[in-house]
Design goal:
By secondary structure, this protein is α/β, with parallel strands linked by helices. The protein has one domain: Leucine Aminopeptidase, subunit E, domain 1 (3-Layer(aba) Sandwich). Helix content is 35%, strand content 19%. The protein has a six-stranded mixed beta sheet with strand order 1-6-5-2-4-3, with helices on both faces. The chain is globular and about 40 Å long. It is an enzyme of class 3 (hydrolase). This is O-acetyl-ADP-ribose deacetylase (Regulator of RNase III). Keywords: Hydrolase.
């Protein structure tokens, strides 16, 4: 599995699946969630409304993931996951790790071979860049997950700031791209 760390706009990357750091409503919000919804257009909101009316009537719980179509994005799917809100007292790193694992499991289930992640929980939910990078690393590289993702050839971390990108590069032992 090729792992890439870069600073940029996740809505512009050409991968099979883009991960959305969503809120539990799945109906859009700020930060990465808002950017993905704006770039994807109304089809994404409609797909999310369908999920809310069928499988997740009460919203998506932290640590879980659900896939929708990607609307106008260059990806085929958007995988929505809800990080734990550290600012609201949700400080269990295993739930943060579950966001990465659930997203990868779902990407494999839909047949994605490439996936792009933002820094789940690293914005308004209050997790430090190091916490987020270490959670992702523990799932993808350290093998804390029992599952290996056979169909996924490439994982990209598309991050929004120099600081976040620098920390991910340190944790993943990459040069900055």
């Amino acid at each position: 599995m090729k792992i890439t760390v870069l600073e940029g706009d996740i809505t512009e990357v050409a991968v099979d699946a883009i991960v959305n750091a969503a809120n539990s409503s799945l109906l859009g919000g700020g930060g990465v969630d808002g950017a993905i919804h704006r770039a994807a257009g109304p089809a994404l909101l409609e797909a999310c409304r369908e999920v809310r009316q069928t499988t997740h009537v009460r919203g998506l719980p932290p640590g879980q993931a659900v896939a929708t179509s990607a609307g106008d994005l260059p990806a085929r799917w958007v995988i929505h996951t809800v990080g734990p809100n550290r600012n609201a007292g949700e400080a269990d790193p295993e739930i943060l790790e579950s966001c990465f694992e659930s997203s990868l499991n779902l990407a494999e289930e839909v047949g994605a071979s490439s996936i792009a992640f933002p820094a789940i929980g690293g914005g308004v939910y209050g997790w430090s860049p190091r916490d987020v990078a270490e959670a992702a690393h523990s799932v993808i590289v350290d093998g804390r997950s029992r599952r290996r993702w056979e169909s996924i050839d490439e994982v990209q971390f598309v991050l929004f700031s120099d600081q976040m990108t620098s920390v991910f590069c340190q944790v993943f032992d990459h040069d900055q791209w």
